[in-house]
Design goal:
Layout lengths: L5 H7 L38 H14 L3 E5 L2 H11 L6 E4 L5 H9 L7 E4 L5 H6 L5 E7 L11 H11 L2 E5 L4 H4 L9 E5 L13 E5 L1 H14 L5 H11 L2 H21 L3 E5 L9 H7 L6 E6 L4 H7 L4 E2 L9 E3 L11 H7 L6 E4 L5 H12 L1
Bound molecules: pyridoxal-5'-phosphate (PLP).
The site of pyridoxal-5'-phosphate has 15 residues, from helix 3.
Pfam family, one: Cys_Met_Meta_PP
Organism: Candidatus Fischerbacteria bacterium RBG_13_37_8
Keywords: Amino-acid biosynthesis, Lyase, Methionine biosynthesis, Pyridoxal phosphate
Amino acid sequence: MKFIAKKTQCVHSGRIDDERVHGINTPIYTSTSYQYLDTDERFYPRYFNTPNQWALANKVCALEGAEAGLIFSSGMAAISTTCLSFLKTGDHVVFQPNLYGGTQHFATGKLNTYGIDYTIAASQRTSDIEAAILPNTRVIYIETPSNPLLAITDIAEVAELCCSRQLISIIDNTFASPVNQNPIRLGIDIVLHSATKYLGGHSDICAGVAVSSKENINHIWELAINLGGSLNAITCYLLERSIKTLALRVAQQNSNAQTLAEFLVEHPQVKCLHYPGLTSHPGHEIAKKQMTGYGGMLSFELKEKNSIEFQKKLKLIKPSMSLGGVESIICSPAITSHRHLSQEEQKKTGITDELLRLSVGIEDINDLLADLQQALI
Ligand SMILES: Cc1ncc(COP(=O)(O)O)c(C=O)c1O
């Protein structure tokens, strides 16, 4: 049976029936050795084809409206393997600016060593992305909402551009999660996630996902089995279990983040605030068109307060790295997620020392408001 509603997909899609004792959860298949004489299948974890890998990939495919998927051992494994599978020496790739620091570091620090050229577009506007295309461009890579500035890229426009120029379009959909945004339905070729964030949702799993057409996934798979960044069965099972509550968690995170953004943007101590759910956000109209919820991430700068001292004053919201968990956490991207960028790159991207990124959890909104309020005094 095919499920349409996200909440139902989260719980039921991709589950494997337990035919032996009829438990209602997917059994965990830990074997790395599978008998082969009576079958044409060659199961092996690094081939990305063992039962828990399939079950999880199918669940994410249902949520993203994709035909096929691969589960990786981290978001960066999904990003690097996918990009490299469509790029060879002499090719060129266009990245939007405003990317997760690790992705930008991969682009600027590693691609050239394989003879792959890249351009970071002047902005995430489609016209600037188009202006960066060269005759040898093969791939366009976007991330929306972006980490940490919540910049919004018009997904349908970029997909159309790629289609008309016969380029592969890749999106990092981590910040939105498949609950708030489904880029394949807007024409994007390949959707990536750091499953370490919302999909895992409890700050205890490191994983990544790529979903697309069967043809694209087979193509990525050919490199993936060589690079070897697959995920073990137990973590696949834990991730499958986590996704059962994804829609509920994200709904609460959307709602909490909207309330906190509305509170912070009006606060006299707040210099600027980035959240696509605010009508004042420059990408709001595009976000409204392509997202069903604005997500649980926001970033802001304070006027007078030192950002580190402010984080120390918080009692409930922990200054921690990563994002997307059930607990609210805060960080300074300049010294965490984007610390590998040079000062010049940070400046160009708008990541100041004072910028704070808040990953909003599922706690009671009044407790979150009270914590921010007491730290802002
Ligand atoms: C938007 C985004 N994409 C990708 C990644 C990389 O994911 P991972 O740390 O699971 O490799 C991150 C990590 O913070 C991220 O924020």
